[in-house]
Amino acid sequence: MNPLLTPELGTYVWSLVIFMTVLFVLRKYAWNPLLDFLEEREKDIAESLKMAESAKTDLEQIKDESEKILNEAKKEGKAIVGDSKLRAEESAAKILNDAKAKSNEFLDDAKSKIEIEKKRAIKEIKEEVVDLSLELATKVLQRNVKDDDNSKFIKSSLEAVKVDEAKS
Amino acid sequence: MFIAEKVGKEWTMDQAPEYAIDHVANSKKNIFEFEFLNSLSEKISNFFGISSESLFYIDLGISKHVFLLFFVSFIVVSTVVTLIQGYISHKKNIPNKFMSIIEMFVIYLREDVLKNFIGDKEYRSWAPLVYTIFFFVLFGNVLGLIPIFDLTGLIGKIGYKAEMLGKDNILYLLSKGGHTVTANVNVTFAIATITFVAFIAAGIQKYGFVQHWKNLAPSGLPWPLYFVVVPIEFMGLFIRPLALTLRLAGNMMGGHIALIIFITFIFSATSELGGLAGFGIAPFSITLALGLTMLELLVAVIQAYVFALLTAVFIGMAIHVDH
To answer: Residue B85: which of A16, A29, A38 has the nearest Cβ?
Structure first.
């Protein structure tokens, strides 16, 4: 028989045993751990890709949002500034008006008081003048005996009046 | 010239085929004798009622091919386990050169073969078998191409006299070619048997025992056709592993025989036409052998791939019955 095709059951049995052993060992220590490892790695890669994608969209969203917020803030700021300017102007005008009104009031008050005082002073002066003239008249009448005396007396009285006037 | 003349003296041209076959075939004698293996062989053979003269005597002795099987399996297991464990243990490591080759094969087989033919979900339980077949056959094929044990023969031939070694010497027997285990039909038949069991088991696991055998023939045929279809499908079931066996063994064996015949041209020319002719033909002979070795390297990978692919295809056929 051709030695290349001889059935050698011993070799066959040994092949089976050895192959099964190799299969068992490699399955436990090589293929299953390697396949698990590869699957895990692929899952990791897919997950990180997904995460990167979602992070990208998140970032874009955040960017959009921040831009929106910034725009709003700008608008609001402008509005606030405009408003406060207006208000400040208003209040300034009001204050100015108030002040004007008050000062006018004061002025009027002062004027009227001055007027009153003036009138009173004039009245007092008048009364004083009357009194003085009366006094003068009586004195003139008492000294009418002598002419010289009279004229001297009038002069001195007038001087006295002058001094009095200057005093008051 | 010295070696060529020395060989040329004992060489005749018609020795070549015998020499080549002797190189490829298993040793007739065991290279290691173990008493318990002999008694075990006897016991098992007696149990099955096989006499020691029978062709089917189960001789469990360590013949050349069994020794090489141990050698190949040791290399496969140590290489693959070391590389993969090393790769997995530190996760951030980049695979080294050998590991990236293994990873390439593993990923390629998974994406293009396992997921394609067996299915995205079912592939996981059959992947170790397909991977083991691929790498076992690949290492067997490639290690057969490396003349590790032929070197021992060369040393024996040059350094010692052949008579000193004797025909029973381990070195002498190994020198008859530490060649490809996968060229032995018994070895390939054993692997094919495992494929056979695997694809039947896959079908039974999926459909249950009865339904699996019903799946053999497509349903809905007119009944007379079943007389034709069922025997054909049944025969096909057994032809599949046989084809696997002969394809792999034939490919590896053929390459090796051609390789040896090319080398023997040198010896033949020397013995027929003198040492000078041997020298003249040597460059051609060696170039041819070199080219064929390159081709054989390719065949080694292709045959390993084909064996693994067909295993996956058969398992897939058993699982997905819709033809």
So the answer is: A29
Q: Specify the length of chain A in residues.
A: 168
DSSP per residue over B26-47, as a string?
Answer: PPSS-SB--HHHHHHHHHHHHH
Q: pLDDT by residue (tens digit) across B79-90?
A: 999 888 888 887
Max CA separation in chain B (angstroms): 75
Rounded to whole angstroms, how far apart are CA atoms B94 and B223?
Answer: 60
Note whether residue A4 is domain-resident.
no
Closest in A5, A23, A34 to B185, CB measured: A5
pLDDT of residue B197: 94
Quote the minimal CA–CA distance from A42 to chain B in Å: 11
| Ramachandran class of B166: left when φ > 0, alpha when ψ lies in -120 to 50, beta otherwise | left
Domain assignment of residue A153, yes or no: yes
Residues 6+ apart with CB under 8 A from B234: B216
Consecutive H or E run containing B246:
helix B223-273
Q: The tokens 């500034």 sit on which residue? A: A81
Q: In this structure, is residue A1 part of a structural domain?
A: no
Taking the model in full, what pTM does it have? 0.73
Contact B248, B137 (CB under 8 A): yes
Q: Is residue A2 part of a domain?
A: no
**Predicted pLDDT at B89:** 82
Per-residue pLDDT of A136-166, as tens digits, reads 888 877 766 556 666 777 778 788 877 777 7
In this complex, do A12 and B189 lie within 8 Å of one another by their Cβ atoms? yes
Range of the domain at A83: 9-167
Q: Which of the residues A14, A24, A43 would you substitute to probe the B interface, choosing the one with the greatest number of B C-beta atoms within 10 Å?
A: A14
